[in-house]
Amino acid sequence: MASERKTSEERTRERLIDLAAEFYDQFDAGEIPHMTLPTRTKSNIEYDEDANVWVYGDRTSKRSANSVRGARKLLKAAYTIEFLARQLDEDRSSTLRELYYISESWDNEEAHFSDQDESNKLIEDLEIVSEVKREDFHMRPEESGAKLMGPLKIREQTNRGDREIHCQLDVGQGGYQIPNNPDTIEFLEHDVEFVMCVETGGMRDRLVENGFDDDYNALVVHLGGQPARATRRITKRLHDELDLPVVVFTDGDPWSYRIFGSVAYGSIKSAHLSEYLATPEAKFVGIQPQDIVDYDLPTDPLADSDINALQSELEDPRFMSDYWTEQIELQLDIGKKAEQQALASRGLDFVTDEYLPTRLDEMGII
């Protein structure tokens, strides 16, 4: 595993140096240095119906040094490439936030980033043109990884050596924290029957406290709201490599349906990585608008922004199915939304004793 990791790092460094060499070759050929990227706008995002994921279209834009603004962007790219290559040489890592501050130490003031959004977008640009993930650059997000709990034994590569962990027996109630780069994890053995991705921490804790992972051999993955890349990546690996069904359990509102969509079909922001992050076979377990009616759940009224989002989802390829059309139209009709925790109105054990077993049985998961 260590030799494979080293090969991967060497390959990543070579791709970065190749990018810098392209600038040099353009200079040498008397051309204005430039970098060509897919146009990263909503109008250039296409839904690949064969792969069931979002991808970039054919439109491109050119970052060129033919203007002062363009020259600054390429200068910042060159400095960032040098920093990333050195980081790989030294087997170090840094966060996206740290990169923004690190630029303040660069000797050319024109190379300093004006804000973190600018440095974040540049890292995404380098991912796209190099066809290398930022995790392979040793760049980490600022937020902590999400957690999982269930009958799975893994081996994780760390900078202090490999370690084997059982994601029930060797962890506390909080579970196993997913590392920034889940590709450093090797799946050793498991008794998992299905993967349950849960939006909120409160519901994740309820499932664990009630022993849902034990009773149903479920691997409970906390999404923590809009899921981080690491969370989506390990979910896809669990499905693809272990052939495990994946279900997504969220609140009953349009924004939560989009959380499901990002797990299943990818997001616009990371369209260049959809085939790496998305799990099109994932299924939505709830909260459904039909559940609000059937269980008379406590609700909040839909805000104007909720209504607009639901109407937009009726035109979204990710939700163009009989099931989603029926559920979204029902929600617009009743004018209500509900949280996962609303199930507690029928008792703290209702979600694990009745709601989820019933839904999972209907879906053919258990």
From TrEMBL:
<keyword id="KW-0067">ATP-binding</keyword>
<keyword id="KW-0238">DNA-binding</keyword>
<dbReference type="GO" id="GO:0003918">
    <property type="term" value="F:DNA topoisomerase type II (double strand cut, ATP-hydrolyzing) activity"/>
</dbReference>
<keyword id="KW-0479">Metal-binding</keyword>
<feature type="binding site">
    <location>
        <position position="199"/>
    </location>
    <ligand>
        <name>Mg(2+)</name>
    </ligand>
</feature>
<dbReference type="InterPro" id="IPR036078">
    <property type="entry name" value="Spo11/TopoVI_A_sf"/>
</dbReference>
<dbReference type="InterPro" id="IPR004085">
    <property type="entry name" value="TopoVI_A"/>
</dbReference>
<dbReference type="InterPro" id="IPR049333">
    <property type="entry name" value="Topo_VI_alpha"/>
</dbReference>
<dbReference type="GO" id="GO:0003677">
    <property type="term" value="F:DNA binding"/>
</dbReference>
<feature type="domain" description="Topoisomerase 6 subunit A/Spo11 TOPRIM">
    <location>
        <begin position="194"/>
        <end position="360"/>
    </location>
</feature>
<dbReference type="GO" id="GO:0006260">
    <property type="term" value="P:DNA replication"/>
</dbReference>
<feature type="binding site">
    <location>
        <position position="251"/>
    </location>
    <ligand>
        <name>Mg(2+)</name>
    </ligand>
</feature>
<comment type="function">
    <text>Relaxes both positive and negative superturns and exhibits a strong decatenase activity.</text>
</comment>
<keyword id="KW-0413">Isomerase</keyword>
<feature type="domain" description="Spo11/DNA topoisomerase VI subunit A N-terminal">
    <location>
        <begin position="72"/>
        <end position="138"/>
    </location>
</feature>
<dbReference type="InterPro" id="IPR036388">
    <property type="entry name" value="WH-like_DNA-bd_sf"/>
</dbReference>
<dbReference type="Pfam" id="PF04406">
    <property type="entry name" value="TP6A_N"/>
</dbReference>
<dbReference type="GO" id="GO:0000287">
    <property type="term" value="F:magnesium ion binding"/>
</dbReference>
<dbReference type="Pfam" id="PF20768">
    <property type="entry name" value="Topo_VI_alpha"/>
</dbReference>
<keyword id="KW-0547">Nucleotide-binding</keyword>
<keyword id="KW-0799">Topoisomerase</keyword>
<dbReference type="InterPro" id="IPR013049">
    <property type="entry name" value="Spo11/TopoVI_A_N"/>
</dbReference>
<dbReference type="Pfam" id="PF21180">
    <property type="entry name" value="TOP6A-Spo11_Toprim"/>
</dbReference>
<comment type="similarity">
    <text>Belongs to the TOP6A family.</text>
</comment>
<dbReference type="GO" id="GO:0005524">
    <property type="term" value="F:ATP binding"/>
</dbReference>
<feature type="domain" description="Type II DNA topoisomerase VI subunit A all-beta">
    <location>
        <begin position="142"/>
        <end position="191"/>
    </location>
</feature>
<dbReference type="GO" id="GO:0006265">
    <property type="term" value="P:DNA topological change"/>
</dbReference>
<feature type="active site" description="O-(5'-phospho-DNA)-tyrosine intermediate">
    <location>
        <position position="101"/>
    </location>
</feature>
<keyword id="KW-0460">Magnesium</keyword>
<dbReference type="InterPro" id="IPR034136">
    <property type="entry name" value="TOPRIM_Topo6A/Spo11"/>
</dbReference>
<comment type="subunit">
    <text>Homodimer. Heterotetramer of two Top6A and two Top6B chains.</text>
</comment>
<protein>
    <recommendedName>
        <fullName>Type 2 DNA topoisomerase 6 subunit A</fullName>
        <ecNumber>5.6.2.2</ecNumber>
    </recommendedName>
</protein>
<dbReference type="InterPro" id="IPR002815">
    <property type="entry name" value="Spo11/TopoVI_A"/>
</dbReference>
<dbReference type="GO" id="GO:0005694">
    <property type="term" value="C:chromosome"/>
</dbReference>
